[in-house]
Design a protein that fits this description.
The chain is α/β, with parallel strands linked by helices. It is 42% helix and 19% strand. Bound molecules: 5'-O-[(R)-(carboxyoxy)(hydroxy)phosphoryl]adenosine and zinc ion. The site of zinc ion (ZN) has 5 residues, from helix 4.
């Protein structure tokens, strides 16, 4: 069954056509340059950019997949989490197309998309990775940082999360402190690579003693701010790479230690990663090392575009949901859920959206 998927949760306007786990086309219109001048994502700017591009992005996705609307079985759309007025654009478009083409809508959680991103395939079905459960998934994006115990395709539980900033958000804020623009993650990675001394500043990692798998990053960022302010302009300039490396290491080290603890308590078959920060090479090295220590494979998104926001991952979740009959019973009443958390997925889907078995 072919599905058109739409994601407008943040600053990428994305559409894709998928069939099962196979991605037939994926189109992503990035808004980074629209937001860069403001130093971060501005919701009203995102909304206008989504509105201006969504129809073209969808048309391209269908064209590249060489699929017409009558070949589609459903439309999958991200309901949340994300920016409310940005999400609305994708949902309104999905509703209109569902009406015009008489298709069901499958509501999808954006973080479930990142969860499935290591298992998205190209149009030839590669890579053909089996999904062997249970797995431990570490999701690191601009809005979320979560350790997820993934028991089966649609059965997952967030067992650890950030109590304040997300990892990507902390990197973005750190870059801002050091005088750089948005998005900060790739800038911090580049700077960190140039550091001659590793973890020179050893910023304190909060919450490491707490027995939970929860994490905190805002204290690390504040330590960076104080350190930076205490330095002369010359020192700041000379130490920029070491400062970036130290903050990046502090954030990643926290995630690694908490994931290590989670892996010790929960026997799993694989460690997976997803989300915008998962593209970071240092993060991948640390995660692979951790997986090896636990004798596990480390499964990463197979294509670079799958780390950033995209609609292919939304479509793949949509395929599993469609197979399970989880379509919206009252598609016209679907509303954005900006704070929709991952474990609430099935509960919310069943109780609020009134899902029903597809009849046709
Ligand atoms: O998943 P994503 O594209 O959007 C959200 O759903 O939030 O993640 C965006 C985040 C941003 O915070 C960005 O700074 C971070 O991913 N990021 C990186 C890198 N590239 C993007 N963080 C670390 N290293 C990178 N190379
Ligand atoms: Zn995302």
């Amino acid at each position: 069954m072919k599905i058109l998927a739409i994601d407008t949760s943040c600053d990428e306007t994305a559409a894709a056509v998928v069939e099962g786990r196979r991605c037939l086309s994926s189109v992503i219109a990035s808004q980074i340059t629209d937001h860069q001048v403001w130093g971060g994502v501005v919701p009203s700017v995102a909304k206008r950019a989504h509105e201006a591009r969504i129809d073209t992005v969808i048309a391209h996705a269908l064209k590249r997949a060489r699929v017409s609307s009558d070949e589609l079985s459903a439309i999958a759309v991200t309901l949340g989490p994300g920016l409310a007025i940005a999400l609305e654009v994708g949902i309104a478009t999905a509703k209109k197309l569902a009406r015009d083409w008489k298709l069901p809508i499958v509501p999808v959680n954006h973080m479930a998309g990142h969860l499935f991103s290591p298992f998205v395939q190209n149009r030839n079905g590669n890579p053909d990775r089996p999904m062997v459960f249970p797995m431990m998934a570490v999701l690191v994006s601009g809005g979320h940082t979560e350790i997820v115990l993934w028991r089966n395709h649609l059965d997952y539980e967030v067992i650890g999360r950030t109590v304040d900033d997300a990892a990507g958000e902390a990197l973005d804020k750190a870059a801002k402190i050091l005088g750089f623009s948005y998005p900060g993650g790739p800038i911090i990675e580049r700077l960190a690579h140039q550091a001659t001394e590793q973890d020179r500043y050893q910023f304190t990692r909060p919450m490491l003693r707490s027995p939970s798998y929860d994490m905190s990053f805002s204290g690390l960022k504040t330590s960076l701010l104080y350190q930076y302010r205490s330095m002369s302009a010359d020192e700041q300039a000379n130490q920029i790479a070491e400062l970036a490396q130290s903050i990046q290491e502090g954030i990643f080290d926290t995630i690694i230690r908490k994931t290590n603890r989670a892996l010790k308590a929960h026997p799993v078959q694989a460690l997976t990663i997803g989300g915008g920060v998962a593209v970071n090479r240092r993060f991948r090295v640390l995660m692979r090392r951790l997986a090896t220590r636990h004798n596990l494979p480390c499964i990463t998104p197979p294509f670079r575009y799958l780390n950033q926001d995209n609609a292919a991952m939304i479509g793949v979740v949509g395929s599993y949901l469609l197979d399970a009959g989880k379509i919206a019973e009252e598609p016209e009443n679907l509303d954005r859920m900006p704070r929709w958390s991952l474990p609430a997925y099935i509960t919310v889907a069943q109780q609020t959206i009134h899902l029903k078995q597809r009849t046709s």
